[in-house]
Write a structure and sequence with these properties.
Helices cover 28% and strands 19% of the residues. The protein is an alpha/beta fold.
Length: 264
């Protein structure tokens, strides 16, 4: 993502994130049967055992900041997916996007495209940014879902930013048939959207940016309305063979990428 973003959350703010109730009214969401609690064991609590490591799928996200990438080496290092910047605002098309997408696909990685938002109050700005992204991104069946990268409010208050994001997301959803992921840090979400869970309730998965050595990130919006995170960007200072300099690293829980973050 943009190198200026600071995704670390101060401990006191993380406490507010986890404790705060969303002030934004939202329609009820349909319950997800896959999140139903597992039935209790008839024999009572299980005996303590050594927990097996939780499987994860490792990936990364890049833009033209990373310069020339050797995607064969990235794949050989165990990275299985990559989010690649396609656009920013309504003026920037990532110069390395086409090359990165083709080479990452060729190396066997699952790819996704993201848009760095630069919102403002001008009329139809969100729609123009969405159309700019759609004009520059290549989104195919089997790809990761497209992403709205929210790191700047640019003076918009929470109500304005929520409306802006809804318009962008709905425009891209109408064009692609899938609900995009939302990328944000916990602190940004708390400050810029008043910790709303509206997007969580309405089926937009969360790509959380929380650079921490802890076992998991802080998740805003009431633990994303109890859905949790879909993708976790856990560091901005990763080292990967085939990429000069540092790079953002991401992970998805499980042994494979779930259908919920893929384009059908």
């Amino acid at each position: 993502m943009q190198r200026a973003v600071a995704a670390f959350a101060a401990p006191c703010l993380l406490g507010l994130i986890l404790a705060a109730a969303s002030p934004i009214a939202a329609p009820s969401a349909v319950a997800d049967p896959s999140r139903a609690p597992a039935p209790a064991s008839a024999s009572g609590p299980a005996a303590a055992t050594s927990a097996a490591p939780t499987p994860v799928v490792d990936g990364l996200d890049v833009s033209d900041h990373q310069k020339r990438i050797d995607w064969a080496r990235v794949a050989a290092a165990g990275k299985q997916f990559a989010f690649i910047r396609a656009s920013a605002g309504t003026l920037t098309a990532d110069r390395a996007y086409g090359t990165n997408v083709a080479a990452a696909r060729g190396a066997g990685l699952v790819v996704g495209s993201y848009h760095f938002a630069n919102p403002n109050r001008s009329q139809d700005d969100a729609q123009r940014e969405a159309r700019w992204f759609l004009a520059h991104a290549t989104i195919l069946s089997g790809d990761l879902r497209p992403v709205l990268d929210l790191e700047r409010a640019n003076g918009l208050d929470p109500v304005e930013l929520i409306s802006w994001a809804r318009t962008w997301l709905e425009t891209v959803t109408e064009a692609t048939g899938v609900r995009p992921l939302i990328y944000a840090s916990p602190v940004f979400w708390l400050r810029a959207t008043a910790n709303t869970d509206w997007f969580a309730q309405n089926g937009y998965p969360l790509w959380i940016a929380h650079w921490t050595p802890d076992g998991g990130p802080a998740v805003p919006g009431g633990n994303w309305h109890d859905a949790g995170w879909a993708v976790w960007q856990h560091t901005s200072h990763g080292a990967v063979p085939g990429i000069p300099g540092r790079v953002d690293l991401d992970r998805v829980a499980g042994s494979s990428l779930p259908a919920s973050i893929l384009v059908p």
